[in-house]
TrEMBL record:
The lineage of its organism: Bacteria, Pseudomonadati, Pseudomonadota, Gammaproteobacteria, Pasteurellales. Keywords: Cell membrane, Membrane, Symport, Transmembrane, Transmembrane helix, Transport. It comes from the Bacteria. GO terms for biological process: L-aspartate transmembrane transport. The chain crosses the membrane at residues 21-40, 60-78, 90-112, 163-180, 201-221, 233-257. The gene is dctA. GO terms for cellular component: plasma membrane. Belongs to the dicarboxylate/amino acid:cation symporter (DAACS) (TC 2.A.23) family. GO terms for molecular function: fumarate transmembrane transporter activity; malate:proton symporter activity; succinate transmembrane transporter activity. It comes from Haemophilus paraphrohaemolyticus. This is C4-dicarboxylate transport protein.
Length: 438
């Protein structure tokens, strides 16, 4: 007869088999999606609602996750000046590396010249879809952008899902809660308790991540086909290599200077990167990124401020894409740009990339805004890259995602809000984080 000692420790949890791990399922789904889209294009294209539905599910929970994280983080801060200090340091980081990404894209495009030799007549490039992006770009001004940060009501950001509006209300409410001292403690405690079921909801939503990844990938390959990228392969390869070098060399140097490894960071967030790759959306992994950055030793208040803000202002991949795509169009249409015009292009891109932040399809909208301002650059040239934009969006999203993870650790270190021992464990792969991807 088997007897069990009541005082003996419980047995360790069973290690999940490899096919039970969610990110492995996502990888498998991506492969199946590519095969379905390639061999059964019509069926693959019909699976688009699966990907769209998953993204909608994730967006449904992003607003309350940000609200709970930011409010409880700020309410727990003793010094309210540190809120402004964190925000200021984050914006300084974002401005520096976003501009650097624009410069890198411009330099590489001038060296490789991926559009040279195509000899395309701009007058033959008419596209209703391009006109749609141009009209959206014209609506996106800096003043309109800043006015849009202010929501209609205190509760409307939670229903509309505008990340910057959610962040705006969360910061104000967190400061207000901290300002009333002990009287606000019951509300702070309530919100901290509410965070547990909210992240459990994230866990439930993430169970269907493989289905979303399969649908998104099958649609992309089914609609555009692998053959559609062949004649523009040089631009795609150049963009991917440039983004990889930006991450490994530039962000790698920043990481090394701040005491961690960019390769270790990529390994730490690899699960989320697979999800971003499968869905072409960095938003799909935003809740998990916030959890992982906090687990890696970044203070909750820093994570709550830096990650959501970075999703609108720290778009390294999008910025590399912008200057590279603009110069590709100029080269393909034999439009000669002087050094002065290229500097103008860079300055306009710096502004337009902030003006369209948080807007759906921001990469293409900011490109339209930039082309329409620089004299001589044919906006119609956007039709050249419209078909391959979807293939480049994965790289944009991955680069943006890694850039925001790096920024969070750097700002936390600047603010002395980083547990270096915990970060070291994360970078060495010793930290087991129970997130929704496991």
């Amino acid at each position: 007869m088997l007897t069990i000692d009541a005082n003996s420790p419980p047995p360790p949890p069973r290690k999940p088999r490899f096919y039970e791990v969610l990110y492995v399922q996502v990888i498998f789904a991506i492969i199946v999606g590519i095969l379905l889209g390639h061999f059964f294009p019509e069926f693959g294209e019909s699976l688009k609602p699966l990907g769209d539905a998953f993204i909608k599910l994730v967006k449904m929970i992003i607003a309350p996750v940000i609200f709970l994280t930011v409010v409880t983080g700020i309410a727990g801060m003793n010094d309210m000046k540190s809120v402004g200090r964190v925000a200021g340091k984050a914006m300084l980081y974002f401005l520096t590396f976003s501009t650097l990404a624009l410069v890198v894209g411009m330099i590489i495009a001038n060296i490789i010249q991926p559009g040279a030799g195509l000899n395309i007549d701009p007058s033959t490039l008419q596209s209703a879809k391009v006109s749609e992006y141009v009209s959206k770009a014209q609506e996106s001004s800096m003043i309109a952008f800043f006015m849009n940060i202010i929501p209609t009501t205190v509760l409307s950001p939670l229903t509309e899902g505008n990340i910057l509006q959610v962040l705006f209300v969360s910061v104000l409410f967190g400061i207000s809660l901290a300002s009333v001292g002990e009287r606000g403690k019951p509300i702070t405690d309530l919100l901290q308790v509410a965070a547990a079921p909210m992240f459990k909801l994230v866990s439930i939503v993430m169970k269907v991540a493989p289905i979303g990844a399969l649908g998104a990938m099958a649609f992309t390959i089914g609609k555009y086909g692998l053959h559609s990228i062949s004649h523009l392969m040089l631009l795609i390869v150049t963009f991917y290599i440039t983004s990889i070098l930006f991450v490994l060399l530039i962000l790698g140097a920043v990481a090394r200077y701040n005491g961690f490894s960019i390769v270790g960071l990529i390994r730490y967030i690899k699960d989320e990167l697979w999800l971003v790759l499968g869905t072409s959306s960095s938003e799909a992994a935003l809740p998990n990124l916030m959890q992982k950055m906090e687990a890696a030793g970044c203070k909750k208040s820093v994570v709550g401020l830096v990650v959501p803000t970075g999703y609108s202002f720290n778009l390294d991949g999008t910025n590399i894409y912008m200057t590279m795509a603009a110069l590709f169009i100029a080269q393909a249409t034999n439009t000669d740009l002087t050094i002065g015009q290229q500097i103008t292009l860079l300055l306009v891109a710096m502004l337009s990339s902030k003006g369209a932040a948080g807007v759906t399809g921001a990469g293409f909208i900011t490109l339209a805004a930039t082309l329409s301002v620089v004299p001589g650059l044919p906006v119609e040239g956007m039709a050249l890259i419209l078909g391959i934009d979807r293939f480049m969006s994965e790289c944009r999203a991955l680069t943006n995602f890694i850039g925001n993870a790096c920024a969070t650790i750097v700002v936390a270190r600047w603010e002395n809000a980083l547990d270096k021992e915990q970060l070291g464990k994360a970078m060495r792969g010793e930290l087991v984080v129970k997130t929704e991807m496991h």
